[in-house]
Amino acid sequence: MHLWYDNPTCLHEVGAVVNAFSLMVAVGAGLGLVHVLRGTPEVTSRRWILAGALMLLAGFVGARLGYALIHEPYFDAHPQEIFQVWLGGLTWPGALPACLLAAYLLAFSWRVPVGLVVDRLAGMAFPVAAGAWIGCWLVGAAYGSPVGENAWYGLMIQDETGAIMSRFPVQPLAAVVLVLSYSLLPRPRPGRPVEPGVSGLGALMVLGLNLLVFSALVDVPGPRWNGQRIETWAALALAAVAALILFFTRRIAARRQNVLLDVGREP
Predict the structure, then answer these.
(1) Which of 26, 50, 180, 194 has the smallest set of CB atoms within 10 Å of its CB?
(2) Are 135 and 152 in contact (CB under 8 A)?
(3) How deeply is 211 buried, as exposed, middle or buried, from its count of CB atoms within 10 A (0-12, 13-18, 19+)?
(4) Mean pLDDT along residues 37-61
């Protein structure tokens, strides 16, 4: 999702409200670190908690720089505001490449497969993204289209001006679907190991599908390309690339397993 405001200058007028968004993202980040802690052995927990914190920092910086890049004309005229994050303005398409770069650098410095880093840390994105969706709901960002007041599925949701009307509940529904889909991710089980990278790629694919569906339902003014929001195209790319890499990862692993079985059968 994207904390969109049609004109970045109006961020000055809602600075206090943006704190609700920041609070929910912070809650999601805390839950993400708990996820990392629960999924790592105690002997290496400190190492992975630090990695998770670095990943959150990278995502935050990337989200801010991505927002500034998308709103380049405004920030060219007000470059000092790029680092004034309390004014609001974050975008997940900027956070994602920063997090992937951080994962690669961690893997390189630790001399471990990048798939292992992605497996351990990709699950953090779910509580962070769910918190961001709820934060958008609270501050009147990334809202859905208006619906009739008698529509059973409509919720009274405010926009960035504070006006409240019955809308399709994009933000809360996206958050709920994220939480539910998290339970469907592949995880190692006794007797059923999961190939390195599969868990993380599955998480990224599910996250991309969530963002693809719900960003297409957002009814907020913002930059578009070929009629679709930039976040929608980014989500499509994320889901497609993760699915392709996941497919080939599992196919290669299956071939390797078959070769080992054939070798074991040789007299």
Answers:
(1) 180
(2) no
(3) buried
(4) 90
The full set of domain ranges for the chain reads 8-265
Give residue 148's pLDDT. 84
- Global confidence as pTM: 0.81
Return d(Cα 257, Cα 163) in angstroms, integer: 59
Q: Which residue has the higher pLDDT, 153 or 182?
A: 153
* 160/180 Cα distance (integer angstroms): 28
Q: How far apart are CA 145 and CA 84, in angstroms?
A: 30
Residue 7 has pLDDT above 80, yes or no: no
Cβ atoms of 122 and 204 within 8 Å: the answer is: yes
Q: Whose CA is closest to 3, among 58, 75, 64, 77?
A: 64
73, 90, 103, 219 from 123: Cα distances, Å: 35, 20, 13, 28
Question: Rounded CA gap, 149 and 186, in Å?
Answer: 40
- Helix (H), strand (E) at residue 114: helix 114-121
The conformational region for residue 166 under phi > 0 = left, psi -120 to 50 = alpha, else beta, is beta
Q: What percent of the chain has pLDDT over 70?
A: 85
Q: Which residue's entry shows tokens 């470059």?
A: 79
Contact between residue 160 and residue 79 where contact means Cβ atoms under 8 Å apart: no
Q: Which of 16, 28, 87 is nearest to 59 (CA)?
A: 28
Average pLDDT (54-82) is 90
